[in-house]
Amino acid sequence: MKPLSKSNPEHVRIGLALGGGAARGWSHIGIIQALEEMGLRPDVIAGCSIGSIVGAARSAGNLWRLQDWVLSLRRRDVATFFDIGWGSKGLVDTERLRKFLHERVVDREMPIENLELRYGSVATDLGNGREIWFTEGLTMKSIMASIALPGLFAPVWHNGRWLVDGGLVNPVPVSLCHALGADVVIAVNLNADILGKHLSLKKDDIAASSGFMDGILGTIKSYSANLFPGDREESPPGILDVLASTVNITQDRITRSRMAGDPPDILLEPYLAHIGLLEFHRAEEAIAEGRACVKRMRPAIEYTMAHAVRISG
Asked: Do 4 and 35 form a contact (C-beta atoms < 8 A)?
């Protein structure tokens, strides 16, 4: 991809607001790569949920390491991250997740202040619903708090309060990007095309084998697929389907509301409805769509950056 001729001058600080969307978030990798191939290197990254993982990896200089790992993922590998214990632990094995983050994203003890790029993530105070910004302290804790979707992840204890997924209050953190000093904000909304989609799961995908973890993954996959069989009144959606769609609807409405009040300069909305929330093994498709999204939006990106350069100059 040919770089822009006058891209990313020193006096224009570019911010990326990377939204939440679980497995669809691997498209952030393709988006970041495609933007940088155009010459648009971010100065600021603000992430929510999966956006906090990819954003931290880029801010720490480890995006390539994360990409290598996600491209190697198989369905069975994803299953190993889940635990059948509900209770306060949630469905995700947090220790295994921390190990992955340490190896592929950022060192356990790395402070946000020491990252290569200015970075922040957003979480939600479970007690009062307030938005919490992580702009200092341990990067690992900021990620664990931002991704803590209730029911799947355990809440994170921080400064006397329990924190959960930032997508409950600010799914695409444009406001945090601005607060961190970005002049031009490129926002990525992963959920723009998922509402109203009637997807279907193949039975073979759910029951690939009789193994115990395959059964667990089948349940998780049914959650992620966002099914609503509209032509079968006698078969209402299950509780996990309802919860998944409730999250989608809520985050879509919150995203629209927040961006109406604090709009980004550029909005990227990759087409990801075909990827279920927990289909992390489909990284190659997600990354490719991220790149394709940047390609589709290139004229708007070029126009916005040229305008920003004129104003700042």
From this structure: no
> In the structure encoding, which two tokens stand for residue 280, read together?
């992390």
pLDDT band at 194 (very low <50, low <70, confident <90, very high): confident
Closest CA to 123 of 101, 102, 100, 149: 149
Question: Choosing from 43, 165, 262, 265, which is the catalytic residue?
Answer: 165
For range 193-210, the mean pLDDT: 46
Which of 49, 175, 222, 224 is labelled catalytic? 49
3-state secondary structure of 267: strand
Rounded to two decimals, the pTM is: 0.84
Instruction: Tabulate helix, strand, coil % of the chain (nearest 5).
Output: 45, 15, 40
In this structure, what token pair is assigned to residue 11? 């006096």
Identity of residue 206: I
Q: Distance (Å, rounded) from C-alpha 281 to C-alpha 260?
A: 33
- The closest alpha carbon to 279, from 50, 121, 58, belongs to 50
The DSSP call for residue 24 is G
CA quadruple 287, 293, 299, 301: dihedral sign: negative
| CA–CA gap between residue 249 and residue 239 (Å, rounded) | 15
Place of tokens 């990067």: 139
Is 165 labeled as catalytic in the residue annotation? yes
Active site residue 72: no
